[in-house]
Design goal:
single chain, Immunoglobulin-like, 3 domains, Beta-glucuronidase, glycosidase, EC 3.2.1.31, hydrolase
């Protein structure tokens, strides 16, 4: 799916702002058939949960309604007219005036609604969007809804971050020609100093395709004709971690020699490969330093915010991080585009978090019933997971910053049924994109003796909390556990190994001379211990700490005001460990510790 952008043949109108807002229990049965009867207004983009002081809204289970009027530009006569939702968490139904126009399930990927036949250039229409944050065992991520003793519905979910919902990303009205470019796929490479850009263009309607590629100064460095082909770039400048370089690939669809549609796609020329124990970018070993993150800020929830986007990347640069994982869902496409422009490497993850009944059983790992069963992760769950993969890869396949797909976080890969569930998804992901490695983040109680799917993947990504959930406050014991665990994966897999999560909850301002959990000193010493172990393994390719910043979670006695494993507070103030990390990471420059390459 091509992101809407303004081009010589396309226009778009941003619909962000203040919309009328209501929850389903306070409006009639068909509230879209007229002006929404509500005193409330909500910001778009933003999660709705923290905008209001009303607890019934914050924890609402069911549908909420957003509404505004929209005017179509008068110059769009004869064009296709579409609505674009960058995301609606987790499901949406769209109404124009009194008519139902379409729906989408999946909270973190975009979708379009075609309005061509129902609106007119220069006209105005009433737009109502129903959004549901409900999670079931047939959604990604999964959850369940129960009715409590008070008769009120309650959402239970099996992931440790708050279930923010609503229109958390931008909404657009945009136009395209009826003869149009529908999709573009690029695959890049290089040989010596010559770069290659293989492209495939899908178009709707008859017409001829021509493409050209320009460098950062706007000079055309290559061209081709046809819907598929390859362009060579002499003296290519590669896209590299920390040194981003982007070309502009312009595709034009012509009819009778006249350009009827045009689209420009930023392209970074680079290669990604796993070879033995190495993760290679442009043929050179790469060592990940960075974080798992969340789209999470005060008041906005998961709402996109350009100021936080810029500041977060500044903090990544300050601390010396070169990468992050989009834990545990696809982030807004603007985040990935920013990474493209600034040379930050991304592990792009699906929203498949919570596929693990063992987590419900606590650290025992003993599920109340099998994860992969009709009761929980069944064929319908996997179908939703597959659709999510299609939409994620379809959206992000052309971004040079994205170097690996993570298709799940902490699934029950140690349980029977895991292979039957995941093998078709791995096959699908490789069909959709044969160029990038695949991984999944391994839960602590999936080990080398019971994991059933690691052979299907390219990189071993470990989520481990020795010294926190296991051997709390005993860093010497934790160090022994960690080293033996990593060694077992080295011996079993022969694959690159990285730590995708490790961390300790830390209360800013809490100090101790002892190894006391929750103190700033303990977080620092905990990380130092891990890095000491990582550096003993030449097979190790990266460290991504959990988490970049403190974030909101569900209610629970084990969380006080959210998850506090952040190296930065929720409002982005550094904890003591940030300075120790800065000393380590700024000296690595993408290299494995102890190497000179």
């Amino acid at each position: 799916m091509l992101k809407p952008i303004p081009t010589p043949t396309r226009e778009l109108v941003n619909l962000d702002g203040i919309w009328r807002f209501a929850i389903d229990s306070r409006v009639g049965d068909e509230p879209w058939t007229g002006r929404l009867q509500t005193p409330l207004e909500a910001a778009v983009p933003a999660s709705f949960n923290d905008l209001f002081t009303d607890p019934e809204i914050r924890d609402h289970v069911g549908w909420v309604y957003y509404q505004r009027t929209v005017r179509v530009p008068r110059g769009w006569a004869g064009e296709r007219i579409l609505l674009r939702f960058d995301a609606a968490t987790h499901a949406a139904r769209v109404y124009v005036d009194d008519a139902f126009m379409g729906e989408h399930v999946g909270g973190y990927t975009p979708f379009d609604i075609d309005l061509t036949d129902v609106v007119s250039a220069g006209g105005e229409f009433r737009l109502t969007v129903a959004v549901s944050g409900d999670l079931t065992n047939e959604t990604i991520p999964p959850g369940k809804i129960e009715v409590g003793v008070t008769g009120r519905k309650k959402q239970t979910y099996f992931h440790d971050f708050y279930n923010y919902a609503g229109l958390a990303r931008s909404v657009w009205l945009y136009s395209t020609p009826k003869l149009r470019i529908d999709d573009v796929t690029v695959v890049t490479g290089f040989e010596g100093t010559t770069g290659t850009v293989r492209y495939e263009v899908k178009a709707v309607g008859a017409g001829d395709v021509r493409v050209r590629i320009a460098d950062a100064q706007g000079e055309v460095v290559g061209a081709a004709e046809g819907a598929g082909g390859q362009i060579e770039i002499p003296e290519v400048v590669l896209w590299k971690p920390g040194a981003a370089y982007l070309y502009d690939l312009t595709i034009e669809l012509t009819d009778g020699g006249e350009v009827v549609d045009s689209y420009t796609l930023p392209v970074g020329v680079r290669t990604v490969e796993v070879r033995g124990y190495e993760f290679l970018i442009n043929g050179e070993p790469f060592y990940f330093t960075g974080f798992g993150k969340h789209e999470d800020t005060p008041v906005r929830g998961k709402g996109s915010d350009d100021a936080y986007l810029v500041h977060d990347f500044q903090l990544l640069d300050w601390i010396g991080a070169n990468s992050f994982r989009t834990s545990h869902y696809p982030y807004a496409e603007e985040v990935i585009e920013f990474a493209d422009r600034h040379g930050i490497v991304v592990i792009d993850e699906t929203a498949a978090v919570g596929l693990n009944m063992g987590v419900v059983g606590g650290m025992t790992g003993k599920p109340p019933f099998p994860t992969f069963s009709e009761q929980y992760a069944n064929d319908r769950t996997r179908a939703a997971h597959a659709q999510h993969l299609r939409e994620l890869i379809g959206r992000d396949k052309n971004h040079p910053s994205v170097v690996m797909w993570s298709i799940a976080n902490e699934p029950a890969s140690n349980e029977d049924g895991a292979r039957e569930y995941f093998e078709p998804l791995v096959t699908l992901a490789r069909e959709l994109d044969p160029t990038r490695p695949l991984t999944y983040a391994l839960v602590m109680f999936a080990n080398t003796k019971n994991d059933q799917i690691i052979d299907l993947f390219d990189v071993v990504s470990l989520n481990r909390y020795y010294g926190w959930y296991v051997a709390t406050g005993e860093l010497d014991v934790a160090e022994d556990y960690l080293e033996r665990d990593i060694q077992s994966w080295v011996e079993r897999t022969g694959k690159p190994i990285m730590m995708s999560e490790y961390g300790a909850d830390t209360q800013p301002g809490l100090h101790s001379v002892w190894d006391q959990a929750w103190t700033e000193e303990y977080q620092r010493d905990y990380l130092v211990m891990h890095h000491r172990v990582f550096d003993r393994f030449p097979q190790f390719v990266g460290e991504q700490i959990w988490n970049f910043a403190d974030f909101a979670t569900s209610n629970g006695v084990h969380r006080v005001d959210g998850n506090k494993k952040g190296i930065f507070t929720r409002d982005r103030r550094p904890k003591s460990a940030a300075f120790a990390l800065r000393d380590r990471w700024r000296g690595l420059d993408g290299r494995k510790p102890g190497t000179t390459q």
